[in-house]
Write a structure and sequence with these properties.
It comes from Roseburia lenta. It is a multi-pass membrane protein. By secondary structure, the chain is mainly α. It has one domain: Orthogonal Bundle (ABC transporter involved in vitamin B12 uptake, BtuC), CATH 1.10.3470. Helix 1 runs antiparallel to helix 3, helix 5 runs antiparallel to helix 6 and helix 12 packs across helix 14.
């Protein structure tokens, strides 16, 4: 309990510092006095007010909630497959969501229509479920988790190839929109998007939190969970639906973001020294929010005014974490 309180306190402090950094840094710097005047709405006009309230705050909140959603989705997938290297990006679930959203965007744009935020979420959710369905079918034939992860990566490549094929035959204006989104970015997020993100992510994470007890029993093995009265079939379906909805929501609004869903649950588990879902779910949410907010700040500030893909930043920072985790796991087996 003590480690949980210390870890959560540290994550909250880190988030507050990251929020201040993300508000003040970028291609246009905002000093501390200007930031507080704008945030407290003492100034309601001017360049700084527009930059903070219309550009940086929606982007900041989107990164916070979607980063948390991605980490919780990774935790659910790792619980489902009983393996710490399972995640929406590695298993091809994000690529499946990306494929369906790309198809929906092209079809709408070719007809002169603008796809709604709800439409993108629906397309991403269906794409996530399709990719997850293929992974589950393979899991019935493949016993080794390492082979299943490889199969998930191959499914991701297939989905990415189909997306590239669609982009190749799309019109030039559609290609620009798809390219910016498919690289992974929170740029262009507005308050309307933030409202839908907050509602979807909050409800889904709360549903996950209320499932903490059966998830904890499932972690102890299917036989133990059944003896505790857990409906295994229903629990698995809910794990699939909730993880797909969370990862689909992230992909719909920000594009594919790599390795947050794998590394963050592991880091939080190491910090708290526990595998209890009651502690890990809120910890993963805050950890994912902090890591994503930090990476997004680097993505837009490092080479400002040029912005780099957030997936490039997360890959550079989090791949070493995943490699160390895999090496330690193999050493523990030896």
């Amino acid at each position: 309990m003590k480690r949980f309180i210390v870890t959560m306190t540290g994550l909250i402090i880190a988030l507050l510092l990251l929020v201040i950094w993300n508000v003040t840094s970028g291609s246009v710097s905002v000093d501390g006095m200007q930031m507080w005047q704008v945030l407290l709405r003492q100034t309601r006009e001017g360049t700084f007010y527009h930059i903070v309230w219309d550009i940086r705050m929606p982007r900041l909140l989107a990164a916070l909630f979607l980063g948390g959603a991605l980490a919780v989705s990774g935790f659910l997938l790792q619980t489902f497959f009983q393996n710490p290297i399972a995640g929406p990006y590695v298993l091809g679930i994000s690529s499946g969501a990306k494929m369906l959203v790309a198809v929906a965007m092209i079809l709408c744009l070719e007809r002169g229509m603008q796809i709604s935020s709800l439409g993108m979420v629906a397309a991403a959710f269906i794409g996530s479920l399709l990719a997850m369905g293929f992974v589950l079918l393979l899991s019935m034939r493949v016993q080794k988790m390492s082979l299943l992860v490889v199969c998930g990566i191959m499914i991701g490549y297939i989905c990415s190839a189909i997306t590239d094929f669609m982009v190749t035959f799309a019109s030039d204006s559609n290609i620009v929109n798809l390219h910016n989104w498919s690289m992974g970015s929170f740029s262009g997020t507005d308050w309307k998007d933030v409202g839908m993100i907050v509602v979807l992510v909050t409800l889904t994470v709360l549903a996950t939190f209320f499932m903490a007890k059966p998830i904890g029993a499932y972690q102890m093995g299917e036989a133990y969970a059944r003896n505790m009265g857990v409906n295994i079939r229903l629990l698995r379906i809910l794990l699939i639906l909730l993880s797909s909805l969370l990862s689909g929501c992230v992909t719909a609004f920000a594009g594919p973001i790599s390795f947050v869903g794998i590394a963050v649950p592991h880091l939080v588990k190491q910090a708290m020294k526990t595998a209890r879902p009651l502690y890990l779910i809120p910890g993963c949410f805050l950890g994912g929010a902090a890591v994503t907010l930090f990476c997004d700040g680097i993505a837009r500030s490092l080479f400002a005014p040029t912005e780099i893909s957030i997936s490039s930043v997360t890959a550079v920072l989090l791949v070493p974490v995943v490699i160390v985790m895999m090496v330690k796991r193999e050493d523990a087996r030896a």
